[in-house]
Every structure is written in structure tokens, then in C-alpha cells.
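Exercise 7b. C-alpha cells:
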């Protein structure tokens, strides 16, 4: 990692051996090593800080620790690991650099939730212990799907899902080919909050979707689907919906609102979220609540979601009954990018 201040702070996230090498290379004889565990990034950061006055240094670091815990009482943890003695230092720049770095790296988490899993797509390839490519199916959302690696890949710390005119470089016979991945039978969560930061372009006939399905069998006629985000064509709306046997097949004059459409800035990054509670499903766009779907009493099949663990589906579809045909293929490729995914569970 880069050197922030030659006389104040060395920032890196390598192994402890790397820390020791830094000390030897700079011939430091007095250092406090403060290990900061940033749970949102699953990284251990090391900040060697130099100071002449041990007491002053301890009080200042304690103050920084307290300020950070005011902002992030659960998700940033500071531990003092080592204490050495050294000669020449510049202290205050180091303290302020430490404070700014930590506050900027610790994400603000929803109140009452704890982060339990995060996908940053920081590797060189899609993590196959978590994700599988989606193959061609017969449904409206996957009948153009292909497992070709050029349609779903990692680039610059982002997942990229493409939709193209079929060049017949593979075995597909469809007019278009699209990429998608899911965590089915590999990673699922029950009663959780799901957040996804994504960006996509607009194409006639393009249907990007971020959604959830149960990772276990559902007894007939039960059904439970959560659409965290769907977008079609050139709309400036993100659609968020719950589907169940009740919403799809049961007539009821008292049905609560199951879907919401919210204005977004297309072609820009937006964060979409849903929360599964025992008594409601909540949707959010860029931190603002857009819909609460309530649990009703005495309504069979109306609220099945809390009983199932859900896996994540990231799909890129071209054409279909809802989105319509790809009438202008010169607009392709379609592109859905995902920056990160976070999953939270209730603290209690």
C-alpha cells in the first residue's frame, strides 16, 4: 500500500512481516502499532505512529479511538499492539491522517444491523466458491443466458455482465447472448438486509435485475421472490417488487401495495436494498425507504419470506414480454456493473 507520510504514517495491509520490514528499513526505535480492523473491507490496517512523548501520544490516540467509536461503535475496532521508543518524529500530522483515514474507510451501516458478508469483486476472476454462471433456461429472464466467460467477468474491482448480438463463437443459437451469475447453493441468508451498488446503461429491450430467491425447496403452491431492482429500456425508474402465491394467484380486495417504482439517474451508480423482517419487507434506493410491504393476519400464503434463506441473482436479459424486443441491436452491448454487495443481519 502507498506511503501516506514519510515522517508520520505508513499505511499498508500486508502481513505482519511487511510491517516489520518497514520498521527495519526506516530504522524506527519507537513506534505504536495500531491495528484497525475494518469489517466492511475485511482488512487489517497498520499505522506506525511516531512520537517523543509517550503519555501525550497515548492520550491523543485514545481521543482518536473515542471519536471513531462515536461514529462506528461496532464496525471499527482499534487495538494497541506494540510500543517502542524512537528519536525524531512528527506527531500531529500522523494523528490527523489516522483519524481521516479511518473515518473515511469505515462505512456507515444501517442502525440495528451488523455486516455479515461483503462481496467487493476485488479478485482477478469471479469467485466460484460463491458464484456460478447462469446457463440458458426457458423463462423470460434467462432464455438468452450463456456461461461464456466474456459475458460475465471481473474488471477494475467490479462485476461486469454483458448482453451482445450472438456472434456464434459458442454453441448458442439464440439471436443474443447475455451473462448472469447467482449464489444458489453456495451463499444464502435468512432474515437479512441486502444492499447492492450497481450501474447499467439503457438499451431498447434490456432488462437488468438484482433479485432474491429461496435456496431451499418451496412446498406447492408457496412462492417467494424479492426483486431488489429491475429496470427496462430507457426508463428513469427502478422497480422493486415482492412476489408470492398470494400476490400472483389469490384475489383479495385488501391486498397491500407490492411494488414501487422510484426515480433514478440512469447510467450512474445507485444503491438498492431490501430488508426481510418477521412482519414486513422494506425497499430502499440510495438510502431512502421506498416501500414497506406488511404481513397481514389470516391471509394464507401472503407472507412466506421469513422462513426461507435467500440466494442472490444478478441477471442481464435481452428481450421478453415485459421489456419488449431488442428492436435496435446497434445500441448493444448492454452492460450491468456491480460494485459491491453487502449483507447484514440483525444485531440481536
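Sequence design result:
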Amino acid at each position: 500500500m502507498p506511503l501516506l507520510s514519510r515522517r508520520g504514517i505508513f499505511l499498508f495491509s500486508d502481513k505482519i512481516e511487511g510491517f516489520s520490514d518497514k520498521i527495519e528499513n526506516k530504522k524506527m526505535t519507537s513506534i505504536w502499532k495500531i491495528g484497525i480492523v475494518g469489517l466492511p473491507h475485511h482488512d487489517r490496517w497498520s499505522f506506525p505512529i511516531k512520537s517523543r512523548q509517550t503519555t501525550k501520544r497515548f492520550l491523543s490516540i485514545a481521543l482518536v479511538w473515542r471519536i471513531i467509536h462515536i461514529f462506528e461503535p461496532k464496525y471499527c475496532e482499534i487495538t494497541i499492539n506494540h510500543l517502542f521508543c524512537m528519536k525524531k518524529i512528527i506527531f500531529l500530522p500522523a494523528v490527523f491522517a489516522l483519524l481521516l483515514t479511518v473515518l473515511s474507510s469505515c462505512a456507515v451501516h444501517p442502525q440495528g444491523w451488523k455486516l455479515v458478508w461483503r462481496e467487493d469483486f476485488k479478485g482477478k476472476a469471479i469467485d466460484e466458491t460463491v458464484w456460478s454462471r447462469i446457463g440458458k433456461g426457458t423463462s423470460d429472464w434467462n432464455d438468452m443466458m450463456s456461461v461464456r466467460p466474456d459475458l460475465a467477468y471481473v474488471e477494475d474491482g467490479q462485476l461486469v455482465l454483458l448482453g451482445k448480438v450472438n456472434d456464434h463463437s459458442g454453441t448458442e443459437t439464440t439471436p443474443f447472448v447475455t451473462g448472469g451469475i447467482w449464489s444458489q447453493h453456495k451463499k444464502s441468508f435468512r432474515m437479512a438486509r441486502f444492499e447492492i451498488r450497481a450501474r447499467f446503461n439503457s438499451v431498447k429491450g434490456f432488462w437488468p435485475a438484482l433479485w432474491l430467491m429461496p435456496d431451499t425447496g418451496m412446498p406447492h403452491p408457496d412462492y417467494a421472490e424479492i426483486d431488489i431492482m429491475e429496470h427496462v429500456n430507457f426508463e428513469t425508474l427502478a422497480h422493486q417488487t415482492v412476489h408470492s402465491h398470494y400476490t400472483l394467484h389469490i384475489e383479495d380486495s385488501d391486498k397491500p401495495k407490492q411494488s414501487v417504482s422510484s426515480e433514478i439517474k440512469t447510467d450512474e451508480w445507485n444503491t438498492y436494498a431490501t430488508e426481510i423482517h418477521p412482519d414486513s419487507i422494506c425497499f430502499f434506493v440510495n438510502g431512502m425507504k421506498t416501500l414497506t410491504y406488511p404481513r397481514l393476519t389470516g391471509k394464507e400464503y401472503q407472507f412466506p419470506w421469513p422462513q426461507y434463506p435467500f440466494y442472490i441473482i444478478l441477471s442481464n436479459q435481452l428481450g421478453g414480454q415485459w421489456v419488449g424486443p431488442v428492436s435496435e441491436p446497434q445500441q448493444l452491448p448492454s452492460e450491468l456493473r456491480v460494485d459491491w454487495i453487502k449483507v447484514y443481519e440483525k444485531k440481536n
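Instructor comment: Residues 1-52, 68-92, 101-106 have pLDDT under 50 and may be disordered. The radius of gyration is 24 Å.
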